[in-house]
Known about the structure:
Mean pLDDT: 84
Number of domains: 1
Shape: elongated
Amino acid sequence: MKKLSIALFAVLFLAVAFLYFLHFTGKKDKKSTRNISQTEIKSEGIAFINIDTVIYNFDMFFDRRADLMEKQKKAEAEYTSKENQLKRSAADAQEKVNKGLVTRAQAAEMEQALYQQQQELAALSQNLQNNLMEEEQVMNRQIVDYITTYLEENKSQYNYQYILGRSFGSVVLYGDTGLDITQKVLDALNQKYQTEKK
C-alpha cells in the first residue's frame, strides 16, 4: 500500500512538472491575454455619462429647484408666522401672570394652551420638513426618469448597449474620456427640454 501511494505521488509530481513546463515555455495565445482596446469597447456598446454634471447643468433641474425653493420659502413663512404667534401668546400670558391679572387656575390653563401650541408648532415643523424632503426626492426621480427616458427613446442615435451613470460614490470608478458622452447628452437634453417648455 505504501509503494502504491509513493508511485501515485511520483506520477502526480511529474504531471504537475510537465504542466508547469508547458505553461511557461509554450507559445502564448495572444487572444487570451490581450488588452481590450477602446474601439473594441465601443463596438461592445459601452459609454458613460457623469450624472452629477448632467443633473446640475440641466435646465429642468434649475426650474424644478426654483419651484422647490419657492415652496420652501412659503413653508418657512408659515412656520415663522406660527412661531411669532406663539411668542406673542407666551409674552402676553407672562405679562398677565406678572401683573397678577389671572388666577393660578387661569395661569395653569394658559400654560397648558401654550404647551399645546408649542407641540403643534413642532409637529408643523416636522411636517413641513417631511413634505419638502419628499418633494425633493420626487423632483430628483423625475429628472433621472426624464434622462433615462430620453436615452431609451434615442438609443439608435447613441448606438450603445450600455450607458453607465458615473457619479461620486458610484460603482463606476473610472471611465476613459473617449467613452464619456456627458456633454453630448447634456446638450441634447437641454435642447429637448427647452423645446417642450415652449
